[in-house]
Design a protein that fits this description.
- It is built from 16 helices and no strands.
- It is mainly α.
- The chain has a domain of 222 residues.
- It is globular.
Length: 510
């Protein structure tokens, strides 16, 4: 496939994922409101607590999904159909085995933990146990669907992936609307139907893959060496993801230990803003991840290098361009959104946004390292840095620093993590040049940031009426966009941006 075709496919896949993201987000927000009213505060809280006991396993499913997609994309890049069939069947066998182990563990330990340690309102014990069983089965179905959804992503059928995602949230909305008409206990009704949605997702992926991808016709295959490779890769991925989640949760706990609940509220608001911005790059990440892995396995190192550089730059600019108007009006936005704004929320938000930009730079190189399969050392270093993050925050809080120094320490660690990913990519990928990265990515981005910060500084010297503030925000946004396009992007990257815009326009017209 030519480079132009790859760029076009990447553009179309990106826009398909963003359309799905915005539709899903709007439906999910409305569903939460309906659900809270239909179930009531107590049952809604009970579902989240009981489901949360099982949801802890998502770090494992996430690691397995990353591992499976990497191995399938790698084999697709090599164009070895025979081995691809074996790898897929091996992945299915592995996921069935893990699902079975989880099921036994949940039934033996999970049920005991639920009934002994979880605070269940009196009279809701039966409903809580039903919800737990539905959640366990949902995790098992989710585990089994991973090889099939990974196949869809590896083949870059993002329109199918997006369509199934939209169908999923639409069905959940319908369920929320139907709760009030339930002939049985509302919580049991809701949990059971959610499990059926997960089962339906599995069946859709299974049928689609079976009809469209020859390698997904399962046959029992077991190779100890292949299993060891897949399981080792997944295990180290889980270690890295688990350390990241642990650091985030640990920071919240330390803020709670040394500061007030108000500080936790400020951090929670900032985390929501960060989550929304991270969603912008996560969908772009899904689009370019298979191409990076395929380029590596097919030894198309020139294209892989362009992908790493372009994805790093575009990911940063995506967050940067959206963040500028938010940062410029942060206090006003928070006041309109929340009404009463917890102290230091704007500082928390600023630091979290900076963190999002830094992570956007480094994520493509994490994918590049994943493509090689050699991830153990990087995950060990990353885990060490996450632990260092908590140690630094503990020491800062112990000697009396304010709560916002928690996310400030996170910014420092994120810089170290991004640097580590770039350097480790250089270690594993001989063709990758740090000098080229500095010249083609960091230098243009630095110029963009300095230019925009300069414009903002000048604008702050001008009056601050509401109308004038809106005009200034619009002009700053337009100038940021133009500067990012003409200075931040090179010719090939502008071509991709144009293709994304054309793809979006054609979908909108149709």
């Amino acid at each position: 496939m030519t480079s132009n075709n790859n760029v076009n496919k990447l553009a179309k896949n990106t826009i398909a994922l963003y359309v799905q993201m915005f539709i899903s987000m709007l439906i999910a927000l409305y569903t939460s409101r309906i659900l809270l009213n239909s179930l009531g505060v107590e049952d809604y809280g009970l579902y989240n607590v009981v489901g949360g006991v099982v949801a802890m396993i998502t770090v494992i499913t996430g690691g397995m999904a990353t591992s499976t997609q990497r191995f399938l994309s790698f084999e697709l890049g090599k164009e070895d159909k025979s081995n691809l069939k074996n790898i897929f069947s091996m992945c299915v066998t592995t996921h069935i085995l893990i699902a079975a182990i989880f099921f036994v563990f949940a039934e033996c330990i999970g049920v005991w933990f639920l009934n002994k340690y979880i605070q269940i309102p009196e009279g809701r014990e039966i409903a809580a146990n039903f919800v737990f069983q539905f959640s366990v089965l949902s995790v098992c179905f989710n585990m089994c669907v991973i090889p099939y959804s990974a196949s869809v992503l590896s083949h870059e059928r993002m329109n199918v992936y997006a369509a199934i995602g939209i169908l999923d949230v639409v069905l959940k909305l319908i369920i929320a609307l139907l709760i009030s008409t339930s002939p049985i206990d509302k919580l049991i009704f809701y949990g059971g139907l959610l499990m059926l949605v997960v089962l339906m997702n599995f069946l859709i992926y299974f049928v689609y893959c079976h009809r469209n991808f020859e390698e997904t016709r399962y046959h029992f295959y077991w190779d100890k060496k292949v299993f060891k490779s897949i399981f080792s890769f997944a295990s180290w991925t889980i270690v890295g993801q688990g350390a990241m989640i642990g650091a985030n949760q640990g920071t919240s706990i330390l803020v709670n230990m040394f500061h007030t609940v108000r500080a936790n509220a400020a951090m929670g608001v900032a985390a929501q803003v960060n989550s929304a911005l991270s969603g912008l790059t996560s969908h772009f990440y899904i689009a370019y991840q298979p191409q990076i892995t395929k380029a590596y396995s097919s030894r198309d190192y020139d294209y892989m290098s362009k992908l790493l550089l372009g994805a790093s730059k575009l990911s940063f600019l995506l967050v940067f361009v959206v963040s500028i108007p938010i940062l410029y009006n942060l206090d006003a936005i928070l006041k309109i959104w929340l009404g009463g704004v917890p102290e230091d929320t704007s500082i928390f938000c600023f630091l979290f946004i900076i963190s999002s930009m830094i992570n956007a730079l480094g994520n493509p190189f994490l994918t590049g390292v994943y493509a090689t399969g050699s991830i153990k050392q990087l995950q060990l270093v990353s885990t060490g840095l996450y632990i260092l993050d908590l140690v630094i925050i503990f020491v800062l809080f112990k000697i009396g620093f304010p709560a916002y120094w928690g996310p400030a320490a996170k910014v420092l660690i994120d810089i170290m993590l991004t640097t580590t990913r770039v350097l480790y990519a250089k270690k594993l990928l001989d063709f990758f040049s740090i000098r080229t990265y500095l010249k083609r990515v960091l230098l243009p981005l630095f110029v963009c940031v300095v230019f925009v910060v300069g414009i903002i500084f000048v604008s702050l010297q001008i009056g601050d009426s509401v109308v004038l503030q809106l005009i200034k925000t619009f002009l700053i946004f337009v100038l940021t966009l133009l500067f990012a396009y003409y200075v931040g992007l090179n010719k090939n990257e502008r071509l991709m941006a144009n293709n994304v815009l054309k793809s979006f326009t054609s979908r909108f017209k149709s």
